[in-house]
Write a structure and sequence with these properties.
The protein is mainly α. The chain is 71% helix and 6% strand. The protein has 25 helices and eleven strands. Strand 5 and strand 6 form a beta hairpin. Helix 5 packs antiparallel against helix 6. The radius of gyration is 59 Å and the shape is flat. The relative contact order is 0.06. The N terminus is likely disordered.
Length: 808
């Protein structure tokens, strides 16, 4: 302290004139060092000291010029000295922190070593488990050997029943030698047992010096050794039992000298081999136990070495735990901090007095600053409140104006909407729900002229040529005559046709070409995947708009009964009919087509609408006209559905061939419009003409073995619908010039023997199909039909191939 005061006074005496400049430089450099210290060690006690020095510097700046000149010299030297001491303390603190980091690193190393020991202990535990499993396996092998030995002894007992006492003495000698070997083996086992007990005692002694994890490992090893000891005792007990058994057998042995001389050699060799095997097995077990003991010794040495390394570490820390080391380090830190605070509390007397004066000045200024700051904060708060009030008032005023404007707009919009709704209601009341149908009323009022259909045979031939040549498109379409006959007969049989076959066989073209050839109407409906009900097909009524959305099918139904088409055939072509399930979207049509023609009525909506079309019934129903046929095309692949029985049974099914048969087309035929009434009259006349033939055919078919086999073996029969179809289909086929056998074959193949009905099932038998084929051929042969049942036999033979290929 004296040196510091002396150093403070000497510059003032030597050179008073230059003191201000040199002192100012020193103070500047000292304050720069203080700033660096504060920035580099912010948050610690040194940073706090630096902050105090900066406050002192601030007070110094606020002092008078004379006070600055008097104190500047002393401040510069004192600050330089303090900064030097502070730097030393910083270095010491860094050294202490470095020591702490090293201690922590050493502690982490110890923890890692401890973790490694745990992992090794677990590995050794797994190894012991593995060895125990091997011992169990060997125990199982010994049990199997013992069972085999028991079997051999039983065989020996059977051979010794007739033995005489002459061999008994020699057998006793062999037993005595066996007893001696057994005693030796028992002695060796006793020695092993004693050795193991000594090892257990040694392990128990070393166990006391190990930690808990190592004690657990040793316990497991001891348990394993105890288990081995018990196993050896069990083996000894088993050997004693075997000895007693052999002793009893020795007493029972009664062999003759002649038999003994021929048997003793083989028995002696067998017994010697058996006991040699037992001795070898026990020696192997002994070697395994010795290896395990050696492994245990090695593991114990490793653990003791690790313990020794732990002891060295503990001696380096004077047997202190890591927690105690950290506690000592914290104590050293607190001591350093206490020394630093003591250093701060011992400034020079002059510096202390100056500091007190500066502190009083600082406190006064700080009080004034606090008062002014408080007043300023109050003023700011008041100003903020005033501003917020003004802003809120402005926002409320703006919101009020916006709401008023919005209400005005809403009122105008509501008024306009109300006017629009009233206008729409008024317009809707004066407007029909069926605009498209009303338009058809206006367009199709003119009655068309038609001509009568000639004889069905001539009609079929003429129709083949009319279909084959499309004069408008200059396009040729070839269809077989028999296919034309089937198509015409199908028109007589059902109002629903299904045309099947692969793509490109002309299914769609046939329906369109027929309508063109007879001068009828046609409407193509593209069936969409996902259709579920009638509304998808004919349309639906929107109650709000009071409008019916009229689909193409509804317009076709209405157009077909208009004056322009009511006496001409009309085709509704359902393209890709099985993209959705017809049993859902076409269900009401399927039911209606079964009714009497005058009852085929479709309900469109629940209540009638004013100003409706002329042909609607009660303004809400439509009739399915008698001159309209539904023809659906179908492909069978992964994108389509299979038809249900109710659809197949109601429809006329045709499958067009892959290859067309060409012929010379008569292209000179003039366009014509045939009357549908004359076509129906031709169908009725053919039905009446051939009614007896059909009735006889139905009776013969019903009494035949073929129908009996169908019903009894395949549970397939028919009802009134099939007979009604036969009574319409076959006469028309006969009138067109077809053979009765060909017509019947088509009906059997499409109605009774089709895939899913009699064929293509999982529950059929090969014998039933073979018998059915024979019955069908017999039925054809008995009636001497001209054509063979080609289509039916093709289905049945395909079924037989399925059996032969093993697919059923």
């Amino acid at each position: 302290m004296a040196k510091r005061n002396k150093a403070r006074k000497q510059p003032v005496v030597a050179n008073a004139t230059n003191s201000s400049n040199s002192a100012a430089d020193k103070i500047g450099s000292a304050l720069a060092a203080v700033d660096n210290l504060a920035e580099s060690d912010n948050g610690s006690i040194f940073g706090a000291m630096a902050e105090k020095l900066k406050l002192a510097k601030t007070s110094h700046d606020a002092a008078s010029e004379e006070q600055k000149k008097e104190a500047s010299e002393s401040y510069g030297n004192d600050i330089q000295t303090l900064v030097g001491e502070l730097k030393k303390l910083v270095e010491q603190n860094k050294q202490v922190e470095l020591d702490v980091k090293q201690s922590l690193a050493r502690q982490k190393q110890l923890e890692a070593a401890q973790e490694e020991l745990k992992k090794k202990a677990e590995a050794e535990k797994k190894e012991l488990d593995k060895q125990s499993k091997e011992l169990l396996a060997s125990k199982k092998k010994i049990a199997e050997d013992r069972a085999e030995l028991a079997i051999k002894l039983e065989e020996l007992k059977e051979q010794e029943l007739d033995a005489e006492s002459g061999f008994a003495a020699k057998h006793i000698e062999m037993l005595n030698s066996f007893e001696e070997k057994q005693n030796k083996l028992r002695d060796s086992l006793e020695e092993k047992k004693l050795k193991l007990e000594k090892e257990i005692e040694e392990l128990n002694k070393s166990k006391q010096t190990l930690n808990e994890a190592e004690k657990t490992l040793l316990d497991e090893k001891l348990q394993l050794l105890f288990a081995k000891e018990a196993e050896l005792d069990e083996k000894e007990f088993q050997l004693n039992q075997e000895k007693a058994l052999i002793e009893r057998k020795r007493k029972q042995a009664q062999l003759t000298d002649e038999e003994a001389s021929s048997y003793k050699t083989s028995l002696k060799d067998e017994i010697e081999k058996e006991f040699a095997y037992q001795i070898s097995s026990l020696e192997n077990q002994k070697a395994n136990l010795e290896k395990q003991i050696a492994q245990y010794d090695q593991g114990e040495k490793q653990l003791l070495a690790k313990l020794s390394s732990f002891k060295d570490l503990e001696r380096q820390f004077e047997d202190a735990t890591p927690q105690e080391v950290l506690k000592q380090l914290n104590h050293y830190k607190q001591t350093v901090n206490t020394l630093r605070s003591q250093l701060d509390e011992k400034p020079s007397e002059q510096l202390e007095e100056n500091f007190k004066e500066l502190r009083k000045t600082y406190e006064a200024l700080e009080q004034e600053y606090s008062n002014a700051h408080a007043e300023l904060q109050q003023s700011k708060v008041q100003l903020t409140k005033s501003r917020m009030s003004v802003i809120e008032l402005e926002q409320i005023h703006k919101q009020k104006q916006a709401l008023e404007k919005h209400n005005q707009l809403l009122k105008a919009a509501v008024d306009q909407l109300s006017a629009d709704v009233d206008d729409l209601v008024n317009k809707q009341q004066a407007k029909t729900a069926f605009p498209a149908l009303l338009e058809l009323d206006n367009k199709l009022r003119a009655k068309g002229t038609t001509e009568s259909v000639p004889l069905l045979r001539d009609f079929a031939k003429e129709l083949q040529h009319r279909i084959a040549w499309d004069a408008n498109e200059q396009k040729e379409l070839y269809y077989r005559f028999e296919d034309i006959c089937l198509f015409i007969a199908g028109l007589a049989m059902s109002r629903l046709h299904i045309l099947q076959g692969i793509s490109g066989t002309g299914k769609t073209s046939l329906a369109k070409a027929f309508a063109r050839a007879v001068g009828g109407g046609v409407k193509t409906i593209s069936v969409q995947a996902g259709w579920r009900d009638k509304g998808d097909l004919v349309g639906h009524f929107n109650a709000f708009e009071k409008k019916f959305y009229e689909e193409e099918t509804l317009q076709a139904l209405y157009e077909a009964q208009s004056p322009a088409f009511d006496d001409r055939p009309y085709i509704v072509l359902l393209d890709e009919m099985n993209l959705s399930r017809p049993e859902q979207y076409f269900a009401e049509f399927l039911s209606a087509l079964e009714l009497d023609p005058k009852d085929r009525i479709l309900t469109l909506m629940t209540t009638g609408q004013p100003n409706g079309p002329e042909k609607l019934i009660d303004g809400r129903k439509i009739k399915i006209p008698e001159n309209l046929w539904f023809i659906g095309t179908a492909n069978h692949d992964e994108t389509t559905f299979e038809f249900a029985d109710k659809t197949y049974d109601r429809a006329h099914v045709m499958e067009l061939p892959r290859h067309k048969s060409t012929f010379h087309i008569n292209k000179d035929l003039e366009p014509i419009k045939y009357s549908v009434d004359s076509l129906e009259e031709a169908f009725d006349a053919a039905t009446k003409k051939h009614s007896n033939t059909v009735n006889k055919l139905i009776k013969d078919l019903d009494d035949s073995e073929f129908s009996m086999l169908l019903e009894e073996e395949l549970n397939v029969s028919w009802g009134n619908r099939l007979e009604r179809h036969l009574s319409r289909f076959i006469p028309v086929m006969l009138e067109c010039g077809s053979d009765l056998g060909f017509a019947l074959d088509h009906m059997l193949a499409t109605k009774l023997l089709r895939v899913g009905k009699a064929t293509g099932r999982y529950d059929t038998k090969q014998d039933d199909i073979s018998t059915l084929i024979d019955a069908l051929n017999d039925f054809w042969r008995e009636r001497n039909y001209k054509s063979k049942p080609t289509a039916s036999l093709k289905l049945l033979n395909s079924e037989l191939k399925r059996f032969q290929n093993g697919s059923i």
